[in-house]
Amino acid sequence: MQKVKLKSPILWVALILLMVTVLAGCNSGKENKVSESKPAATTPASSSQAGPSQSSPDNGPVSTDGSFKEPLEMSWFVVYDWVTITPWGEDLSTKWIKDNKNVQINWVAANGAAEQNFNNMVVSNSLPDVLTMDRGANIEKLVNANMLAPLDPYLDKYPNLKKWLGDDALNMLRSADGKLYQFPNWYTGAGELGGNGGWMIQTKVYKELGSPKLETFEDLEQYLKLIKEKYPDMVPLDVQEKFTSFPIIYSGFGENKTFANVDKFFFFQDGDKLRPIFDDPALKKALLYASQLFRNKLITQDAFTQTYDQYMEKVKAGKAAVVVSADAFNQGAEGSKAGRLVDTEPLYKAIWPIHDPGVDASKVKPDPKYRTGWNSTVITKNAKDPEKLFAFMDWFTSPDGQRIRFDGPPGVLWDEIGADGVVIQNNKYTEEEKSNLKLTSDFNWVANGNYFGEIDIKTKMKIDEKARPWDAWSTLAQKEVYGKTSFDATQFEGIFPAPDTDEGIADQRVKDIMSELIAKAVFAKSDEAVEQLYEKAKADAIEAGIGKVVAFKEAKWKENLAKMNK
Amino acid sequence: MVFIYGSLVLLAFVTLYPFWNALAISFNAGFDTAKGGVTFWPRVFSLENYKVVLQDQRLLDAFFVTAARTAVGTAGTTFFTAMFAYALSKRGLVGKKFYMIVCLITMYFSGGLIPSYLLIRELHLMNTFWVMVVPNLISVWNMIIFRTFFLQLPDGLEESAKIDGSNNFGIFFKIVLPVSGPVLATLALFTGVWHWNSWFDASIYITNQKLLPIQTLLSNIINSNLTADTAKFLKQTTVSMLDQQKAVTYKSLLMTTMVVSTIPILAVYPFVQKYFAKGVLVGSLKE
């Protein structure tokens, strides 16, 4: 009796723990069934609601211009940590859409824990109506769990997406079951690809040194040595935080080599085959070159330790003589801004990518761009009326909708549209007043890159000649250089293995091997050391399974080509 | 001796400097900060940052939420934890060991994020003010400290109250709580600071922008601009090109918000300091 009494509290606790575990197990089973039956329950409901509008009595579109008779409200979650949310209606553009189109978007905040929040919502089946997120594993997860509304029934009723995207890019976006779930964002379709990454030089110092020829890697090395001699306070070559732009250096050692080869593809194209990146002679050459430059202190010595802020401080202060960056498009403009009122020309100038002497300059293409845009918007099955949401998005992606975002609503900065499609500024406000207007905010997640490309150039060319080199820096740089050196990587869209498969794990390991190799090689004390590191990394990658990773990606690539040529 | 003083001064400097730097940057005009190099004193003095921060409705809302949460949360936690501890300190309590074991288990183990999320959802606490207060009402760690303290109180206190006809609640409110001043103050301070600084629970459970506490808002500001500069195409409108000489930039705004959200809680410390000095050893010795 005494023994039992002593043990009894512990026995009690053990019993209760057992019960709780059993209940938890049962409940999680129930929860799954509940959550499985919920989508099943909502699908008949939503399809019966969608029914009348799909095979509607009048069979016509519910809205032709993005406006709705009854107020349309939707919850929209953009799944990134860095999104700044401006509540709908607080700036002039969204207020105009609310008043004139009767549409309200309720943004769901990521609050710095975007992925976390997304997972929570998926597990508890409380996804908002619309999501914007990176393509890949997460979207396929949602498709497989039957949580997204297919967009096919609406493509013909609402023509804008199809028109501006083009059929082959559209087919690229289809999921494994052949249906289209994704509305691309910043797609360019059949239009100009755009381009962001490459090289730029600080113009003041360049002029003072007599504007030497700066085309090949040898030219670059000479120039950097000159800078180091004459301007010891300056950084000869800056390479972004964590040496992010090493792959751009790599791309100069061959033709049609994009920085994605080193960054996430881990293969290079050899004719119509894809081979592991470590077999590419250009990679070794690039590592040797970068290592030599770093050893001779021609690359900023804090390449791996500097943060983005510190790097941009140098750029804005004009401390770097040459900059190679994956976002030179924005950073050059940012760096030249400060001197707008004092300099005779912008502080930075975009130059053609530095390349090896034997390489055809016109075929150097560092920046991979996807005609299908950089992420997608999807409509979940929790949305009460997916057709209405699509109708709104379709209007929004059309020139009429995009104009509201890029130029503000009519009646503020413009009243009429010119014959060339560009709005005519009404000059009602001074520059000072304009900057105090809350004109627009970041609410465009179905952006039409095509329209922007066409109109943006025309708008920027209308800027006063004196201000144009600065205010249109990015546009001009893209037109002259970055747009011409970007690589059409649409065919390589979505070739990555799921992270929890064998290939996915091998992919991650190869990625780690590559980052380690770049860091170690740059810090190596001699060329022989670089060679050794390279051979070791190559062997490690083979052991980690790079062969099957590349084979997987090659198979997907061939599928894509077939899809696009359908 | 010199070595000890020296290293302590160094430690103090290393701890204080980042905050001092933030203070200096918050008083410095934004476009000048962007050039780098602001260390101890502002180069181009400007009150513009504070004007913007203190007039921003979102920040003011967040302030109110944090203040309310700290007040209500601290009062609630202190009160409920003390009551719980008092009950557990009574010798005659049935199932006392059982309660203690259950509490200890919760102190060491937790269900994880997803089960907590589901629980909050089922309790209908999602996206309400109470989700920041209710789940934290009982802190087992603090409860144990309270309990140890209550166990040390002489029996005579309570017996004399019982003789005079008081019930348990009466004893608790009229006798035990007043005597526990130092413990209450110390633990209220700890809880208050925790509430003031917490941001993660709000970031997961609250989507209503008006209900975010200031630390979550600060975390949003930090996250938002880190890649916004490099986000493609997003800032190319003619209007955004006009913020050349703005006195308020991302960095200056960040520093100002940080200073503004830290000053209030710093101001509370001097008032509670005397309790703090007494209270730190509370619960450590049992006679």
Structural notes for this entry:
The complex is a heterodimer of chains A (566) and B (287). Chain A is an alpha/beta fold and 566 residues long. In chain A, 49% of the residues lie in helices and 12% in strands. Chain A has a 5-stranded mixed beta sheet. A 4-stranded mixed beta sheet of chain A has the order 6-9-5-10. In chain A, strand 13 and strand 14 (423-425) form a beta hairpin. In chain A, helix 12 (281-295) crosses helix 22 (527-544) and helix 21 packs across helix 23. The longest helix of chain A is centred in the first third of the chain and has 53 residues, at 2-54. Chain A is globular, with a radius of gyration of 27 Å. Residues 27-57 of chain A have low confidence and may be disordered. Chain B is an all-alpha fold and 287 residues long. In chain B, 67% of the residues lie in helices and 0% in strands. Chain B is built from 13 helices and no strands. Chain B has helices spanning 2-26, 30-33, 48-55, 57-89, 96-108, 113-122, 140-152, 155-163, 168-179, 181-197, 200-205, 214-226, 250-279. In chain B, helix 1 (2-26) packs across helix 13 and helix 4 (57-89) runs antiparallel to helix 10 (181-197). The longest helix of chain B has 33 residues, at 57-89. In chain B, 32% of the residues are buried. Residues 226-245 of chain B have low confidence and may be disordered. The chains are: A alpha/beta (566), B mainly alpha (287).
